[in-house]
User: Fold these one by one.
Assistant:
Number 1:
Amino acid sequence: MVSEIDVISAIINGILVGSIYSLVAMGLALIWGVMDVINFAHGDYMMLGGFIAYALYLAGLDPLVAVPVAFGAIFLTGVATQRLVINPVLEAPLVSQIAATFALLLMIRYGAEAAFGPYTRLVKVSYAETIHLGGITIFVPQLIGFVFSIFVALLLYLFLTRTYVGIALQATSQNREAAQLLGINVKRMYDLAFGIGVGIAAIAGVLLTTFYPLFPEEGGFFTLLAFIIVVLGGFGSVFGSYIGGLIIGVVETVSALFITPSLKDVVAFIIFIVMIMVRPTGLFGKKE
Amino acid sequence: MRTGWSEIARQALSLPVLVAAFLLVVTPFGLYLADLPFIANMMFLSLMYAIAAMAWNLLMGYTGQLSIGHAVFFGVGAYTTMILVVYYDVTPWIGMFVAGAVAALVGLGLGVPFFRLRSHWFTLATIAAGEIFKLVFNNWEYVGSSAGLQMKIVPEGKALYYLQYAASYVYIYVALLVLAIELVVLYRIVTSREGFYLQAIREDELAAKTLGINTFKYKMMAMGISAFFTGMAGALYAVRYHFVEPAAVFDVITVSTYIAVAGIIGGIYHFAGPIIGSFIFLPAAEYVRVTIVARFPRLFGLHVFVLGVVLLVVSLFAPDGILGWMEKRGYIRRRRVIEV
Amino acid sequence: MEERILEVRDVVKRFGGLVAVDHVSMDVYRGEVLGLIGPNGAGKTTLFNVITGIYKPEEGTVRFKGMDITGLPPHQVAKLGIARTFQLVRPLKNFTVLENVVVGALQKSPNLGDAVEKSLEILELVGLYEKRNVASGSLTLVEKKRLEVARALALEPELLLLDEVAAGLRPKEVDALVDMLREINKRGITMIMVEHVMRAVMNLSHRIVVLHHGRKIAEGTPQEVANNPQVIEAYLGTGVE
């Protein structure tokens, strides 16, 4: 029997893990919204963030130190990617765009596999403890990840709504031509959107590494989850994606109580297909 | 405007086609005599992917629908063949065609909801479908869950019935047979009125509708045929390796993506593009895997990385694939449906 | 009594809160050219999309030759004998000019040879015969507009809907187009033309219907409509924008 406390516990843990999904998805939504490009390699940039955290961990530092490092490094990687790979195919047919980001996916994911080895790594942080609160179990690194995720989301919110560059990014996402007429350098906006988008994914990768095994192929699953979330949260809506991530996290942990854990993702994918059938607005989104 | 058999025969008897066919038929036996099982396997895989990629391209190059979920049909085909032989003792000779039919039914079932979607939304739905099938088969006890299904070793006298041979070149001939059937079917379609309509849909679906084309019907037709032959490619996999598991036959990278990449590298707007693509990318990836990765196991994954590099180069510098690049340079020309 | 080829009755089409077509009724008689005019956003193209089955109206009916065609899918409407052109031209870019036309011609002439022969005749009529083997994506705008008309004609329609075929053309090109359309009309094809270029509408139309904010505000001969105060008001009112 599933008790009430199990459900509450599942909801809380769903929100904690979902907050990491949210970060990955926000980055994807930013890129999708501003550039109208689907980044199939998104989860792989996240994985790179995880490896940066792991490297610092091996050097004796706390993996969380990697948050700014990973963001900076992957931001720059993202800007380079946008200039060298994405920008040349922006006007190309859909199949070329998708082929280009799939090429990135194959290169990053399997390049990392060849470079670091395919095996799974575990990071053991000093605060890897569980808190028990009347039957509810919370893993401390996950709680920390949650706090960081809210912090990052808040910073992104302030950036997008309170700074000139952020508002310009939003404007580009609303209407590319109008933004151009207003004197916004659209190409620079693309650099920023892609850089920030994958940079945030890399932060998610760092946070994830403190409580989840790290392996080069982990990105695939997170990319798919991020698609689901972005569509659920309203295509292109960065903040809708944050809520969408929490919802998917909760759906996963709660449905795991009732059905075989390995089938819980089936539920998520079916929701996804249903969502794209009734798109484009999702729960919080703008019209396509 | 359906192409007559005489026209197909005339095309089939043209010199380059004859030379290629002769090489394809003679090579496997030569590989056997020369005892080169690795190259024989490479050739089998190239053919298997060529069959799937040709089928995939009926949807992509001809109809404009990009699927990255063809593992669904590949996997369903592989499992159908396996279930029939393991549980019902049905020979794979029949099983392969049943596999195609079952895959086609699955394709039509998915087509009904998915063809309401346009451009990348369709692509995303196909990816999700691939993941759903993998997860379901992973948890389906009847088909052996994640452990998959394995064919028993059969007594020697029954080799033909169960299609079990130690020599891998035999399977190349089976694959060649399937490819030959597929080429005839696809060629007849793409040169017919239906094929012409498919291309009109690819160019502009709304315009096609207002020109009286029932676009849903034709997309479904393309999907059914595409799924059928992809299912047969999956059946070949099951027959060749006597073993299927969800992680192998429903994989989004090594099945869905590889099939699409083979088509894109060869050129989606040319009939033979996916064959060319398969025969270039597969040997390249296999060569890296067997010569470099096998010697330095630490470099596991390098072959897929190389594939990524090739795909990147193609999508940046030759977006219409190798044959598209050759066409642009004037080395070959695309066959027009009508020339007056 | 003239035969009504198309009867539009109380058609309403909404998008969210916006009423694009608001209880519009109109008749089209066999053999005539009906001009459909009105300021931008009046609902003309939306009405075309309703007639051709691209949109399903919330209310009202569309009858073609007495038969209810409301909500039929576009390809069936096309087969029944209603062809259209698009305001923003939609050539099948990688197809040659001839192939574009053959796609339509195959509906009535399933044999390729017949379809090609008919298509070539139509290309001659619209003046694109010389360009028949050119990829349609590389045509000029005038040529693309003519191709739109050719492709629609290939369906052998009884009713032809023309959506701003004269837009973006130079006066001389407009005159040539008007001559071509008059020739097509003489062959017995009924036409509805949505048009901003007055030179074209006033010259060709037997009758004109005026839409404004989704409603029909006037109907009559070109002279009647031109002198209608409501019409003048509608055009002046929005001209200030």
Number 2:
Amino acid sequence: MIWVDTIVQGILLGGLYALFAAGLSLVFGIMRLVNLAHGDLIVMAAYVILVVVSFLGINPFLAAAIAMPLMFGFGWLLQRIVLNRVLGEDILPPLLVTFGLSIVLQNALLEGFTADSQRIGAGALETASFAVGPVTLGVMPVLTFLSAIAVIVGLNQLFYRTALGRAFRATSDDPVTASLMGIKPASVFATATGIAMIVVTIAALYLGMRANFDPTIGPARLIYAFEAVIIGGLGSLWGTLAGGIIIGVAQTVGAAINPEWQILAGHVAFLVVLLIKPRGLFPRAYD
Amino acid sequence: MNLLQVQGLTARYGDFQALYGVDLHLDAGEAIAIIGANGAGKTTLMRSISGVLRNAPEMITLDGAPMGAARADEMLMQGVAMVPEGRKLFPSLSVEENLLIGAHARKAAGYWTLRKVYDLFPILHEKRRQPATSLSGGQQQMVAIGRALMSNPRVLLCDEISLGLAPVVIRDIYAALPQIRDSGAAVIVVEQDIGQALKVADRVYCMMEGRVTLSGLPSELSREAIHDAYFGVSA
């Protein structure tokens, strides 16, 4: 029975990793941009929520709702002013620029908030749980998982059911021809990054409520997110959820065997998937 | 005043000069054909007019307004739509989505709606849910034309729409041209197929090595003159 519990906890943990990864997957899917600052942007959003919570003294979920438009605006400007300039045939400039952005964000957060670890207090929610048969589920992990599903369903609806989503896909296919349709690729990309920052804010909410964070933890979140995206297959959002779950289950199973193996088991699962399916589990049909 | 005027248009790719002072004009409701061999500069001319390549403002005017430096999205908003060479459909989009995206930015009231495009090319209605790139070459060309029409353009640029298609398919596609002209759009057709071009156009421009070497009414141009202008040598 302990194994059922381990696997269920792993699946729920996968929801958190899928949240970390969804924004990365979205941006990569649309503009082939690997944002190495993604983890640091999650940490930054966690600090934004923390500041809103402590200044206004409100519930973290409300604070996240206030942080979302701020982060959207930040993402929009970041794309418009910085990242659009480095997009092109060569994939190296965006990697270098986002790597630099990662360092800038970490140091700015250190300056502003010190290296002390912080936490977004969620009150009774942090320890609440309920039993489903033999398994006891934490309310917070379940909420995280449901949020991940909601984010992915929402992004898929946006992608496949709206005119904006159509413009995203067209621009992703071929920006020059998209401009012949009157679409401005630069603003489509800015909007996409803005939306990715809304997802980042949701990820940051759970990151901050579930565990301590400090300015340096971004890159490790980036690695989990990156692995989830690669396992799932580049550009597939449901694949990203599957990738998150595979890492989550591998980590809890690894930890159940030996607590020291938790992180290692996640990375090993990533390598195994890459060995078997180098393009991920659900790759796009064309690229 | 001409609807579209190209004056002294030059274009270069790095060190290679593709156009040397091209002049042409297009009146409202008119159809002109641009013929020439591979490398004559026809596609470069289309890319310049559509705003994919940008030039000095005064080189291209639309209703007298200088538009040579406008971007492709700005040209579309002014009513210049292009059917690009090679069709360039969006593979992630279905047939219907490819058509709808033609009206994504420019929602001009006019003759063309999704329904009218399906009336023009009924096969597209049947295949509207399929990925656009799963269609045959001729059907994909119909999607590309329909997509450009969805913005109700004032000027429709058709770049090599018969390239790589079977003669019977080319005939079907050109059969749509009268209805497109009736809808009020002026048309520029770029063709390597001289016979096809002479049949549909009010006026013809022949290009060679980045210059217009001959222009006039199809009825006035002799085979020999076209041959010379096309190949640069007398037969």
